[in-house]
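Input record (one chain):
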Amino acid sequence: MPTTVKGIIAREKGAEVELTDIVIPDPGPNDVIVAVKTCGVCHTDLAYREGDIADDYPFLLGHESAGIVETVGENVTHVAPGDTVVLNWRAVCGECRACKKGEPKYCFATHNASKPMTLTDGTELTAALGIGSFAEKTLVHEGQCTKINPDTNLAAAGLLGCGIMAGLGAAVNTGEIQIGESVAVFGLGGVGMAAVAGAKLAGAAKIIAVDLDERKIEQAKDFGATHTINSTDLSVEEVAEKIRDLTDGFGTDVAIDAVGIMPTFQQAFYSRDHAGRLVLVGVPNLTDKIELPAIDFFGRGGSLRPSWYGDCLPERDFPAYVQLFNNGQLPLDAFVTERIGLKDVERAFATMKKGDVLRSVVEV
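The corresponding structure, as predicted from the sequence alone:
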């Protein structure tokens, strides 16, 4: 029997989001209905609203979530009613060429629910990242549910569903930071701050946090930054020179661009050691181009690595990071700046644009 619940939609490009009734259909054979408990307000949701990702309006926004499994389809074996889960948008298929090559982090056919959620008039909704969890309940594929310890702070754990996992994974998985290495992180929003925390977890000896905002620079020290640089009014070369001064003239072993614009990409590129790894985890917009002299690309060696979702595997990574959080080794709760209701999502977008939060978290 379909269920009607409240949810947040973006009806058209640039319009303010709406709290409205949405219809959750009965689950298909491998689908799951999850009662949403928390959902972080991620920049990706704003990008959906603004038409920067797709134009399949209306969108059911929200994707950075934790909740309780409520109803399962007849063939579901991965989870059961009552399980506490974090939702993910990398439910790997196991059958595509990437999965068969042993690279499921590049899966080309990740699973989503078999049926769309709709408005009450039957209009189909496009679920953000295949999840759509700015809602009291949502419908997902069973593979999009990762079970975690039910005694966990869900406002914190749910953030692993997207941005915080992206930053942690950029450091640990993509950057492959080793004990004693040096790291620079450019951009200290939620993703960048998580990259700082990930660098600390990985054992980096020197973690240099770079941003324009002095408030964020100071906060980065709480997540593990050993050195900081305010890049306001500094050229790319001046930033690189400051980082070389902090690393015996060589540059860092790993440089992580958590913004995804050309100035930060160039700062990261020129701030790394000749054999260093550059990781791009900040998402560029659709018109950005990488601009580097070809001889500089050729002459510096090392590697340039895009990091999509922190190269994570949710079934492997989410429970591990939740355990680290519960052990007091990873401050996931420090990313939760404020707790809000569904009706406050539009205000949270405005707050996010001002840079006043790491994460606003909707509690449903």
